[in-house]
Every structure is written in structure tokens, then in C-alpha cells.
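Hey all, sorry for the wall of text incoming. These are the two entities for the joint prediction.
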Amino acid sequence: MSSMPSSNLTIEAMKKIFAEGKRFDGRKLTELRDISITLDISNKAEGSAGVKIGKTEVLVGVKLGIGTPYPDSPDKGNLTVSGDLLPLASPRFEMGPPDFWGIELPRLVDRAVRESHMIELDKLVIEEGEKVWTVYIDIYPINDDGNLIDAATIGAIIALKNTMMPELDKDGKIDYEKKATKKFPLSKGISPISFSFFKLGNSVIMDPTREEEETCEARVTFGLSNWKDQYMINSCQKSGNTPFTKEEIGQIMDLLPKKFEEVNEKLKKFL
Amino acid sequence: MTKEHKRPDGRKNSEMRPMSAKIGVVPNADGSAMFSFGNTIAIAAVYGPRQLHPQHMQDPARGILRVNYDLLSFSVSDRKKPGPSRRSQEISKVTEWALLPVVELKEFPNTVIDVQIYIIQADAGTRTAGINAASLALAHAGIPMKNLICSVAVGKQDKELIVDLTKEEEDFEEGEGATDFAIAKIANTNEYTLLQLDGKIQPEVVKEILNLADKACDEIYEFQKKTLKESISK
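and here's what came out:
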């Protein structure tokens, strides 16, 4: 995802300061930046939200369409997550077909949302086997200052929480004129959050700025949710050139529930 | 978890499917290998180090590892449309990262090492079989490596932890359902180079899963070494 690799000076300086448990912006290694949420950033979407984590900003909209179910799930609605890494948001994004990062971002959000069963897809059937609702979650980074996956996942769940079901007219088409009053079917109490951990040298940090993200050597992202009074990892993906050790994974496992509670507390009033 | 869980093929929870492997399955490649877990069969071929084109992609400090993974169209029940999909592009990339830490790319500036992995027959665990095949193929090509990479999936069926799931086991839907955790590691270390899962796994059982993967990877490592030794003694 990088346009220019970090200089050796930056890499050495960052390694050194991380080893002391500090960061350039004064945070501790696993300290998160402030999160702020704006609801309804676009009134044409069935649900939408803007998320800021520090200077990183992501807009997420939910649109509902009518489609045909997949042959292997005739009794379920469809979920499609897409993302577009707009060159508007970052010097490291370019026009053209999505590169790996443009493919990975929506796939990770998709898995965190889908595998947590937050959306009751079985309630999105209009005519079994024939006609179902398709849920489109569309993600647009507006300003890239690192940690886009976690920001996009938060945006997706908040947009979903605020999604209303449009009405159908007598021909079975969506009636955009009629005010939507029905809530979108969501499982009670489930809201997945994604946590990415980045590694440089022997240090593991959370919520990197873009500079930190570009300097780190590896990343592992976990989608975590609360399910039947326990924490559940719904998705995991490692990226990057260096391995994570068993000890590091152990520390991450201990940290996950704490960070889940911390972020959940911040998002509570939107969920 | 007191009584032993019954698996459809009668395996113990910690038991992998029978492995088989063969070196040199693509004779004209610089290195190649087949690796299979039961009915899942992967082949991998290595080309390079060779000149990288276009030139602007070259790295004067080190070689580049480029991995391509895909399913043959007839390897799965519903025919897979030929050509790369988002799934195969993602698996290609995570496979690349899984292999990278052991490959001595610094020795080959400005070049590329291409690893091509194809699945001939799929019964779950295709990416892990592909990584094991690729690791063998890289060794067969004589690429300097710090170590071998071993890969296996550990899954959870409801609350039961099982090693190397078949498609049938992966499709299990009762209780907490089935979750497949694909893991790769540098042989005989505590260093994991692939971690990938979808489903439901409690953070506190991840350690147990890694321990099961360690045990399986020890066996895979011995098997990989044996396969490589036999291929040169012939």
C-alpha cells in the first residue's frame, strides 16, 4: 500500500522509540486514538456513518437492493461489501483496478460482519429462492492516516445499526419516495469490532498512523464479537513479511477482550 | 471434551489425514512438488530467480517472491470459473507472506522467484497443502532458505478442536459451527507466518490451537525432510 518506502532513518528511530514503549505522537504502544462518529452522512443511503480515528476518516454507506439469492442460500439475503481506496484519501492510493489492499479491506470487513452473524440474513427474504434483499456495504476512506480496516469495520457496524428498510411499491420495486420506518433486521447485542496489531522489530502496536503502518513489518487483524456472553474471534488474517511469535499472539489474546470493552464503551451510544 | 469426538473418517482429533508428497512433478520447472492431505492435492512449481520485468518493479536490494495460487476449474463440486478471483488473489498474497520469512532474497537483487500453486483436487485445506508443496518446491529449486515452512489447519467443530478438517467437517453447522484456522510456521520455531480464520473461536483457546498446530507441523516437517532426502538419493 505504500508509495515510498520508509527511510532507514525512520525505521531505526521508530524501532528504538517503540522498544522504549513510546511513540512519536506520545501514545503508549497499544493506546488507541480518539474515535468520533457522525451519523447519517448521506441521506440517500439506507444507513450511513462517518468514522474518525485520529486523523483517519472513513465514510460507510449501506444501500439495499433487490436481487436473487445465491443457489447455496435460497433462504437468505445477500451481503456484499465493497471498498474503494480513493486517490483522494492518500498519496499511496492510485486510480485503476483495486490492488491487493483494495481487495483485502472489504473482504476483512465482510468477514467480521458476516461471521459474527450480526445481520439476520434469513429475515431478508422477499420470496424464497427467487427474490431477496441484497445488502451493500460500501466503504470509502476520505483521509488515510492508518488503521483503515479497523475504522471501516466500526463504520460498517454503525451504518448497519442505523439502516432502515425501504418500502416496496405494488410492482415490487423499491419506493424511495415513501418514508422508511422499518428497522433493518440485526441480531440483538452483536456488534463486531476489528483490531489490527502491527509489528516492528520486537514491538507490537495498535492503531498506527500511516507513517507507523508503512514502517511496520507485519500486521495481524482480528474481528472480535460478543456471542452468548463470551468473546468470539470471527476472523483473523496476518499480513506482512515477518512472523508473529507464540508469546506475541498470547499477549494479543489477553489484550483483545480489554480493547473490545474499551472501544465498545466509546461506541455504545451509537449501537 | 471428555470422550473422544467421532470424526467421519475415524481419525483422532489431533490426527492429520495421510500425507503424500512427490518432488519434481513439473520436470521443466526449476523446482516443483506435489503435496496432499488425504483428498486435497496441491502442486507447486518454482521458476527463478530470473530477471524481473517490467524493470521498474525490480528491487536492487533484494529479489522478489511472487506467488500465484488458484484452483483448477474442476477441482471443486461447483465448477470454478477459470482465472483469478478475489479469493485466490488473497490466498496468493497470504501464501507469499507465509513463505517470505525463510527465503534468502537478499542474494538475488533485481530478480523474481515465481511460485505457482494449483489445486488439482479440493477437500478443504487447499491453502495449507499449497504452502507445504511450495516450501518443498522452493527447496527443490535450490533457493537458499533458512528453514522449511509447514502449514496445517486446525479447526473447531462446536467446542471440539480437530486438526486438518475435510470439506465435510468444515461444513458442520451445529452448536458453534465449524471454524477453520489456517496456520503456517517456520519449522521448529515459535514463529507463525500464516494466521487466517473465519468463524467463531474464543481468544483463550487460540493457544491450544497453536499447540495442536505445532505438533502437526513437527510431523509435516519430518515428512517434508524425508521426501526431499529420498528425491536426491534416487
